[in-house]
């Protein structure tokens, strides 16, 4: 068996993909933090904030399956370079377009489209958990600096990619292939991916998980700032839920999807009635930590039900699970406005979606191959 050593071709690709995934995640989570001072400057309404926050998901929704298809047809290297360049440019020009909501939303849609191309390509090479360390740094920078710094990282990445990416990553004794070939099944129709109840159990669970995740990602800094009096130092604590999520993702093992959906549902229900900032951070961190159990639940179920087509079923599932990202912005704004500034309906709604997803998953999921 070949050994993995530092600076092998495989390790360089993994390192580059990790860096690209970090930039991808950072560029997406800057806006939920930056929108707090930006709203103070531009006097945006809550509804305008909602559309700005959801704009990225519009683009992301349209390019998931395209990214997977183009990575296969055009090559992962070419698609990844183009996507990183495009989302980095969109990030860099954001401060220049901020005075126009229309231009800003258009820019965020382009950002989401580019990131939707990039993530399937990264996962095509190797699966890597996203880092959210940018959440610690961003509150201590000006909102313009956040976009300029992290947008510039993409250009640095492209230079490293050209220098370090091997021309043929699957040759040589010091490398290991990043994905293994699969046995091809015949007579599979697109309808099979849509009409299978076990697959819809996965899709529903993924949708429910992302509803809560997008609520936290898009609105947590605004909620802590406007409702619990959080300052720049306090907003750094928004990184804590993601750190806990990563830790739980590593140690969760084969915990049931029940923990990943029902657990966050209960803690979000408690979170919405807490008026202490420190306790709120603890509760939402536990919620995000328990959500990581989904990695050993429905997210790994793709390999059970469709071992030869797991990439396709995940692309479909992730596309459907992007719908919460589109809806959470305007829906949250409408609910908060209708409730005279109260957020309880937002978090109880997320609780209901999680519990519904858990019921659908438990009643329809299987661990045997269906495709």
From TrEMBL:
<keyword id="KW-0472">Membrane</keyword>
<dbReference type="Pfam" id="PF07690">
    <property type="entry name" value="MFS_1"/>
</dbReference>
<dbReference type="InterPro" id="IPR036259">
    <property type="entry name" value="MFS_trans_sf"/>
</dbReference>
<feature type="transmembrane region" description="Helical">
    <location>
        <begin position="187"/>
        <end position="211"/>
    </location>
</feature>
<feature type="transmembrane region" description="Helical">
    <location>
        <begin position="49"/>
        <end position="71"/>
    </location>
</feature>
<keyword id="KW-1133">Transmembrane helix</keyword>
<dbReference type="GO" id="GO:0006820">
    <property type="term" value="P:monoatomic anion transport"/>
</dbReference>
<keyword id="KW-0812">Transmembrane</keyword>
<feature type="transmembrane region" description="Helical">
    <location>
        <begin position="343"/>
        <end position="362"/>
    </location>
</feature>
<protein>
    <recommendedName>
        <fullName>Major facilitator superfamily (MFS) profile domain-containing protein</fullName>
    </recommendedName>
</protein>
<feature type="transmembrane region" description="Helical">
    <location>
        <begin position="78"/>
        <end position="97"/>
    </location>
</feature>
<dbReference type="GO" id="GO:0016020">
    <property type="term" value="C:membrane"/>
</dbReference>
<dbReference type="GO" id="GO:0022857">
    <property type="term" value="F:transmembrane transporter activity"/>
</dbReference>
<dbReference type="InterPro" id="IPR050382">
    <property type="entry name" value="MFS_Na/Anion_cotransporter"/>
</dbReference>
<feature type="transmembrane region" description="Helical">
    <location>
        <begin position="265"/>
        <end position="286"/>
    </location>
</feature>
<dbReference type="InterPro" id="IPR011701">
    <property type="entry name" value="MFS"/>
</dbReference>
<feature type="transmembrane region" description="Helical">
    <location>
        <begin position="103"/>
        <end position="126"/>
    </location>
</feature>
<feature type="transmembrane region" description="Helical">
    <location>
        <begin position="232"/>
        <end position="253"/>
    </location>
</feature>
<feature type="transmembrane region" description="Helical">
    <location>
        <begin position="147"/>
        <end position="167"/>
    </location>
</feature>
